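Record ABC-2 type transport system permease protein, 244 aa.
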Amino acid sequence: MYKLLYSEYQKIKWLFILSIILLEGVLTWILAAGNTKSLSYYFPYNWTTLYFQAVSFHGMFFLPLFTGIFAALLCFYEHKDGGWKQLLTMPYPRFKVILSKLLALITLIALMQVLFLAEYLITGSIIYVEGMIPWKCILQGIIGGWLACFPLAMLQVWLATRFQSFGVALLLCIFSVIPNIVLTGLPASLGAWFPFSAPYYAMFPQGINLSPQVEPTTYILILLITFFAYFMIGIRSFVRKDWK
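=>
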């Protein structure tokens, strides 16, 4: 398993991954900083406002979108020149092959969340927002958003093994995040069943007027059910597929 995971990390184009994550960060924080300033009449000009303005872009659109993009990139080489067939001739169980893809994807999502935190601190310092940094809220949101991506990550790894075209996978991701505009307005007990919406519910802070309705026990149960459902379906499909 270690060798498979090491091989996945070796195949990742880290410079490209870091570049698109940083590009997303620049766009997100420019929009968040602009909204924080322009809406200062309605919301306090503080660290919490800056954070939830960023989550409105990052958690709702970019985080689920990039989860799909990363999954497609992790399977890109295997879809070229019979790569899957060559990989599966190696003496490793098939379930470990797809599990290594999942772990590599989860690592990339964690990297994205860490950079999101760093950019949050940098942006807040640049625009001189007021008050103290709500560390508990921020860390809960960032870690919770990462964990909430697990069902989506498993689904995207499974789909990435099915679609040979990176363009098709990208279009699917783009069209899948659009419904978040509506679904994230629903209570988490309904909206979180759609895996692209789940990270938003975890990242958005509670206790303000715009907070989505989240009942923690129900929300966690939904994440567990969807993750294990996608995990079992994805593993079963991958193991039984006839790779030609």
